[in-house]
Amino acid sequence: MPAKPTFISLLLVALTFIAARGQESATTIIKKSDELMRGLTLSGKYSMTVIRPDWRRSMEFFFWSEGTEKSFIRMLAPAKDKGVTFLKIKREMWNYIPKINRVIKIPPSMMLQSWMGSDFTNDDLVKESSVVADYEHRLLRRENMNGAATHVLELKPTPEAAVVWDRIIEWIRVDDYVPLKAEYYNERGELVRTMTFSEITRFGKRTLPAKLEMVEAKKPGRKTVLVLSDAVFDAPIANSIFSKQNLRRSK
Amino acid sequence: MILWKIAWRNIWRNPRRTAVLVTSIGIGLLGYLGTSAFSRGFLTQMVESTINLSGGHVLVSAKGFLNNPQVRMRIQEPGVVESLLQQTPGLARAPIVSLDGMINSSETAAGVTINGIDPDKESRVTVISEALIEGRYLHNGNSAPEIVVGEALAQKLNVLVGNKVVLMISDIQNEISSGAFRIVGLYRAPSSDFEKRYVYIGKTAAQKLAGYEREISSISIRLQEGYVLEEQVESIRSLLDRPDLEIVSWKDRNPLLVLSIEMYDASIVIIAIIMFIAIAFTIANSFLMVIHERIQEFGIMMANGVMPKNIRRMLYLEALIITILGALLGFVLTLLLIGYYGNAGLDLASMAQGLAMFGVGTVVYPEIWAFDVTVGLVGIIAVVFLSVLYPAIKASRFEVVDAIRFV
Amino acid sequence: MSRLIKLAWRNIWRNKRRSLITISAISFAVLIVAVTRSLQYGTYDTMESMAVRMFNGEIQVHRSGFQEEQTLAFSMQAEEHDWSDILARRPEFEGVSRRLTGFGLLSSDSASAGALIVGIEPVPEGAMTQFSNMIRTGAKLVQDDDRKVLLGATLARNLQVGIDDTVVVLTQGYQNQMGADIYVVKGTLSAGNAEVDRGLMVMPLRNAQDLFSLPGGVTQIVYATDDFRQAETRAQILASDFGSDRLEVLSWREMMPELEQLIIMDNVSGAIYLAFLLTVVGFEIFNTTMMSIVERAREFGMLESIGMKPKQISLLVFLELTSKILVAVVAGLVVSTVAIAYLISNPIPLSASLREAYASYGFTFDSLVFSAKPRVFIEPVISITVISLLALIFPIYKMRQLAPIDAMRKA
Please, which pLDDT band fits residue B297 given cuts at 50, 70 and 90? Predict the structure, then answer.
């Protein structure tokens, strides 16, 4: 007699499913969201605006990346910085400046300096410390944000992780893993940095936020805004892009 | 022999006079020895306050490290160097892994020199373990990711004891290496530049960060005695005569301090001379007065047929006894004064407010040097002899009648 | 009373030998303390003024907050004030120089290193501070130098560059703008300080302004005055003259608190020597006074037996001795002035090796320095007068205890 699935057994199956999903979800959600934003490869144009209480400055650059290991940046504007290039391979970074016609390897002492005057450091561009491997993840609750259901997750650095934060709280859309907001806290429980994501746009097969705003909570009036356009995800990128020769190439 | 007796009796015949002479010699010797003992103490303190916080008296490093402190400059076989150093007894040694890098808090980042130390050994060479104002020192034999930072740096990074910071350096593979460390203690140094510059972690943790196995950057050595150590430095230099090592003394590392000390030394010599003139003047004056009082007495002696030569001898003998008594008094007074401060030290912070804020390095311990004692004694004997010479000659040449009539 | 004064005066001259011994003892004490203090203050002044003139200078003016943050966000426009105006109006201000300071990464073909970059006006800066003059190899910067730099000697060695080689500098300038340029090494500096030798680069001010994207910008205005010890008062004068709360005016004491420690140490050690010296000379005065009174026991006995009251005798002795002290202190002051004037015009030379060592750091320092400031004379006059008066108390007290008969029988 073939056993018919009873209501009870169905319920059990459903429950284990839900439970399983609940267990793996915190890490999985972070992983999926991370993959969504990064893609296998990415090439695209960014415009960046640095806002300070008494001034603001805008710049544009083209960006290529392959996974977390390799990336290349070519400044397009302003005119003064045009042709400046950056190459990152693993944890090393080189910088070419046309004005002096030199390639300089960025030393550790400059890694924590601001990148092109923004609220990002060189290290932010380079580091492989990943939200997946360096943190323990915990699902806190669900919340509605901007009219969408979101997971609210807590990320706690593992004891060995070389991370200055005490914890990060991240809001990720339930349906499509699009991140909406991340808050970074120090060990005194003070909010230090907030990233908000908006202008959710379709690039090929992917839907993700094109705009990222970063605010330093303790330094009012300061903000860095990044907007991505012309992005192509997952298309193969020639290896010659991520080479030192490419630094000096004018195009 | 009879002269001895007369001299001895003369000395006790007028205790007031003797007291004046003995105390003037005693106080003079106290003044001279006290001044030189404190000067020695000050010089030592000047050196100590420099070497106390870092480096010790002698620093043994990999060749080239001091001028260009890069991670690839390292002592490859610290064990060999250590066993060579063991041949010289009485050295306190501390291994250091010294790395230039960045420290990062959630607030900001700063360039620092990371000192990986062996906590126990380090405390025998530098005073960093005594300079803590909050929290605790590093635990021994502990590779835990713990760090001690300066008060000023903690303020700049906006971190407290218990908070986490991230250290970042370029490792032996020339790749960026970083690690999280928990702050266990804050120290205070005489200068805020020092506090902002140096952080301390365990040696093993530093080796791990740098990608070293057992290599270290330097060994700092504290010698047993004060600051005149040239021979000891030279003996260590010849002991460690290897092409991969570089041996520098605190003098090599602080040429300007050496200049200041030489300058200070030069002015001390002048001050010692002045002090001696004052002492000589006091002693000579006292002897002149006392002998003057006794001219009548000499006249009577000569009238009774005592040879002038013998009067001179008597005076010298008296002076000798008085000098011995005075020197004894001087030594007792000096020992009382220096004995106290030599143990307890003279805490300058208690004498001058404002010094207390500088933390360590304000206590001076006066030092008695055999050289100074010799100079002091010989000098005083010479002064006494010269002071007695003139009146003695004069006294023995007085016309008997004049001398008796002299009031 | 006037009879007593007359008597006292006559007594002083009656026994010239005795008076001379007392007076010379006191004068000598004044002289010796004055010369010692003169040397101590002279040495301290020299050492401390060297430390001040090494790098920081006496007074600096910044945009408020620069001292704490040391970043280009706290820079200002050089034209914001007429910085040299005060030199014309107040003679105590002797020089002014402008600087722009920032950090950068220096690279040569073979190596790279971080350094503090100081943009200076070579001529006024070199006249006020030493760091740009302490040339080991090559030459100093001059007014019209363009894109020429001085490097700390160790820094140059680490970068493996020599005179006329080039270094590339990469910086984050004003508003974190990227700055980069190539410079020619004109000289290397040896400051006798490992930190400076290992991490300092000096360039012309306008080159630094270009590099840091701050045309016309400065971070520090440095002032030299005629007396570095009065820097705090002078700083206040400057502050009220500018009258701007957007500026901070700092004296070297505020910029170099660790030097303050050195100064306090000097003062304390000076005080300890003074204590020993005063013990010795004080004892000398006490001895002399004591003996001059005891010697005269018979005389006092006679005075008492002819009807003078003990009180009057004490007063007589007191008047005698105080007038001796007065004469002695004045004489001591005169002799001290002459002696110190002599030592200042005929200084005691330093050893040749010490002279050369100082010269290699750009300091002309040939001889022991004696100071002639008022304290040098005021301190011994006051201390010796007090000690002399103290030395009177016991002998006079002792004298009054001598009964007339005892006194006459004595001696």
Answer: confident
A75 or B11, which is more confident: A75
Q: Which two tokens stand for residue C300?
A: 């006092």
C315 or A74: which carries more pLDDT confidence?
A74
Residues of A in contact with B109 (CB under 8 A): 112-113, 121
Percent of chain C with pLDDT over 90: 37
CA dist B168 and B71 (Å) reads: 12
Average pLDDT, whole number, for chain C? Answer: 86
Please state the domain extents for chain C. 2-52+260-409, 57-255
A234-243: average pLDDT: 92
Residues in chain C: 411
Q: Which of B106, B175, B176 sits opposite A164 (nearest CB)?
A: B106
Model confidence pLDDT, tens digit, residues C231-270? 999 999 999 988 888 999 999 988 887 677 677 777 777 8
Residue B16 has pLDDT above 90, yes or no: no
Architecture of domain A35-63+108-237: Clam (2.50)
Length of chain B: 407
B56-86 per-position pLDDT tens digit: 888 899 888 887 788 888 888 888 888 888 8
Instruction: Please tell me the distance from the alpha carbon of residue B306 to that of residue B70, in angstroms, as a whole number.
Output: 86
Rounded to whole angstroms, the Cα distance separating C184 from C149 reads: 6
Q: What structural domains does chain B harbor?
A: 2-50+258-405 (no CATH), 94-214 (2.40.70)
Q: Is the peptide bond before A78 cis (omega within 30 degrees of 0)?
A: yes
Q: Cβ–Cβ of A57/C175 closer than 8 Å?
A: yes
- Whole-angstrom Cα distance, residue C137 to residue C114? 21
Q: Do C258 and B292 touch (CB under 8 A)?
A: no
Domain boundaries defined on chain A: 35-63+108-237
Determine whether the interchain pair B102/A112 forms a contact, defined as Cβ–Cβ distance below 8 Å. Answer: yes
Distance between the two ends of chain A, CA-based, in angstroms?
73
The β-bridge partners of B182 are: B146, B164
| C-alpha separations of C146 from A103, C60, C120, C121, C181 in Å | 24, 26, 12, 12, 12
Closest CA to B312 of B378, B397, B381, B402: B397
Tell me A5's DSSP state. P
Instruction: Report CA Rg, chain C.
Output: 31
Of B101, B104, B111, the CB nearest to A164: B104
Tell me if B27 and C279 make a contact (CB, 8 A cut-off).
yes
The predicted-structure confidence for A88-118, as pLDDT tens digits, reads as follows 988 888 999 998 888 888 887 777 778 887 8
Element (H, E) at C38: helix C16-54
